[in-house]
Amino acid sequence: MEGNVLEECVLELFRIGVVKFGSFTLKSGMQSPVYFDLRIIISFPKLLETVAQLMWEKRPGTDYQLVCGVAYTGIPIATVISNKQDVPMVIRRKETKGYGTKKMVEGIYEKNQECLMIEDVIVSGSSVYETVETLVELGLEVKDAVVFLDREQGGASNLTALGINIIPVITLTELMEILLKHGRVNQDTYNSVKEFVASHNDTSIVTKAKISCKNGIKVTDRKDQTFESRISTTNHPLSRRLFKIMLRKKTNLCVAADVATSQQLLSLADQLGPHICLLKTHVDLMSDFTLDTTQELKELAEKHNFLLFEDRKFGDIGNTVAKQYSGGAHKVVEWAHLVTAHALPGPGVIEGLASAAQDQERGCVLVSQMSSVGALTSNEYVNGCSRLAENHTYFVVGFVSQSSVSGDSRFILFTPGVQLEKSVDGLGQQYVTPRAAVLERGADIIIVGRGITQASDPVATAITYKHQAFSAYEERVAGGTS
Ligand code: 5IU
């Protein structure tokens, strides 16, 4: 019976133009002789209902508290399932609002609820993976994903390896068999698709970390690993130094000294030095900057054992950033261990900075997400940053971010927008507490500016931030597996 419903459904999908033959470029850049475009299903409500029913019947479990459709075409299918089966639904946004994972998911949910994923087509499985990853980060249990069509290009095995059980309603081969049997395609078309499937069955996906599901996949996420264990996995000498400083001084606090004079900068560095692992500067704010100031700063950094971090946010082509970094009045490369860079220009910005650093021990931190309201750091940008970092581990130490943008334990996550109370500053800055930054947003190091520099007692206040952030880190790794 189900066989007939499925066959009729496939023939109907073919009739309305969901299945196309020719030469198509897939999202991954791969050329394919067949394209399956289920997006138009929303124009055929009855057929949409059939598709949703066929998918629901394939669910392996019996006790889902939620359904979630992968954007975009999974969403209308999941909506129909949710409505017919009376199972509440959640939606994961495709574009981030630029902050926290929580804001990426709409709908009401509770930790440990089991969610069934719904997707129209899988090629490599990356869209399913990204959606599951967000839901798992929020504490939901996601084991099963029903997809309408498996294009048999490696997606199912990619996801199985990550602990996600993929159940297709139909594979591309089965779909072609139905079309051939009913004379909708000829033998040549059938053969060309078969050959394509046979020669394109091993796509891969880039993953942040393995998904932690009840089915026992080991969590290897950065957040769960101690700084000690990360010393041996990172290959950047400055990351290793920073981990050692944090452990020795029991501090993951970076102070942002946005001050106007050398005297203020040096005084803060000396007073706060014992409590910080890193001092972040904007030396272009200073009216009396000279290289003598940086000489004294370097001495204080040695005396108190912290590193220097100039937040210049380099963002031009390689040739220009190389000159900006080594030249001008500030000669940043000569004194700052770390600098920030935007990923917008692509690999050239990192290569330019690295060329100017020559053989000095220097590194950069990519701005992956910003703390300000309405930041334009989309998901695609964030993923692009991670890929850039993975390809340039000799120079990239980590990311400035507002969420756990990478599960890769080699990278250090720096989170600004931190104060003792959740608040805003009137010019777009948004603050979370040190605990929330470390435990909810996955920060390794918190960056605090005015919360400390404008406090009536900056030293006592820095000690409070230091304790809160470091104990949150200890709590985080105590809950981990390594
Ligand atoms: N900073 C942010 N948010 C960001 C990035 C950098 O606040 O997303 I990238 C900088 C700006 C300032 C410091 O130098 O971090 C935070 O200072 P306050 O804690 O005073 O807001």
TrEMBL record:
Lyase among keywords: yes
Keywords: Decarboxylase, Glycosyltransferase, Lyase, Multifunctional enzyme, Pyrimidine biosynthesis, Transferase
Keyword Transferase: yes
PANTHER family: OROTATE PHOSPHORIBOSYLTRANSFERASE, URIDINE 5'-MONOPHOSPHATE SYNTHASE
GO MF terms, alphabetically ordered: orotate phosphoribosyltransferase activity; orotidine-5'-phosphate decarboxylase activity
Known pathway: Pyrimidine metabolism; UMP biosynthesis via de novo pathway; UMP from orotate: step 2/2; Pyrimidine metabolism; UMP biosynthesis via de novo pathway; UMP from orotate: step 1/2
SMART domains: OMPdecase (SM00934)
Active site: D311, K313, D316
Gene3D superfamilies for this protein: 3.40.50.2020, Aldolase class I
Protein name per UniProt: Uridine 5'-monophosphate synthase
TM ranges: none
Residue ranges of every copy of the Orotidine 5'-phosphate decarboxylase domain listed in the record: 252-465
GO BP terms, alphabetized: 'de novo' pyrimidine nucleobase biosynthetic process; 'de novo' UMP biosynthetic process
Family: In the C-terminal section; belongs to the OMP decarboxylase family. In the N-terminal section; belongs to the purine/pyrimidine phosphoribosyltransferase family.
EC number: 2.4.2.10, 4.1.1.23
Record-listed substrate binding positions: D258, K280, S371, Q429, G449, R450
